[in-house]
Write a structure and sequence with these properties.
The protein is mainly α. The protein contains ten helices and no strands. It folds into two domains: 1-47; 48-212, no CATH class.
Length: 218
């Protein structure tokens, strides 16, 4: 009986079970990604008790850093900007993930290609060569190692990259602030109406709450 099982392989019932399990696995992965997005992007934004400008600044900073600062130097940049003005640090960190290990290579090659066109220079580097050059940056273990690997690509590349990165970073940052502020402003207006107070009074109350305590994200 054992020999016949080996000869004919798995039973049809087991094969059907494996095939049926694949969609469940894919759905589980999809649900996992959605849970991460909801936890770090949507929930903090929708359930925020911060003044609109505070969350809008977090979105603007996160998008500017995510699109405009080389990967590996982003956390350092967030810390430096936090010393200059207040913004929602957690929200900013979440939005820097527009640039991640999956998107970084096509995004940065697009920066190089578009920057070359804007400067009127030929884009001589191929996508495969670019991927090889980016490998030390993506797999760097330390901040300075990542920055050194990026600068090692040469000033010609850095200039082409920076032209596009700063343009996109500033544009998305401004747009992110405007959209985020509008959404949070409407959210506060609805909340003020429910509480029976004016929008201005609610915003002042939220700002005072930020001064008297340090809620997450400040």
């Amino acid at each position: 009986m054992t020999e016949s099982k080996k000869e004919f392989g798995e039973s049809p019932e087991k094969k059907v079970g494996k095939v049926a399990a694949r969609p469940k696995t894919e759905r589980a992965k999809s649900n996992g990604r959605w849970n991460i997005l909801r936890k770090y992007f949507f929930d903090p934004f929708v359930s925020s008790n911060n003044p609109p400008w505070f969350d809008a600044r977090g979105i603007a900073v996160g998008l500017f850093v995510g699109f405009g600062i080389p990967i590996g130097a982003q956390l350092m940049c967030l810390g430096l900007l936090r010393g200059l003005f207040r913004y929602n640090m957690l929200m900013a960190f979440a939005f820097t993930w527009v640039n991640n290990p999956i998107s970084v290579i096509p995004m940065y090659y697009g920066y190089y290609y578009l920057g070359s066109k804007l400067l009127g220079r030929p884009a001589i580097m191929s996508a495969s060569d670019f991927q090889d050059l980016m490998s030390p940056i993506i797999h760097a273990n330390y901040f300075w190692e990542s920055v050194h690997s990026f600068l090692y690509l040469g000033w010609d590349f850095v200039i082409r990259w920076s032209v596009t990165a700063l343009t996109i970073g500033l544009t998305t940052g401004v747009a992110g602030y405007a959209i985020g502020h509008y959404i949070q402003k409407e959210h506060c207006r609805r909340k003020a109406k429910e509480l029976g107070i004016t929008y201005e009074k609610l915003v002042d109350k939220l700002a005072q709450g930020m001064r008297t305590k340090s809620p997450p994200g400040t």
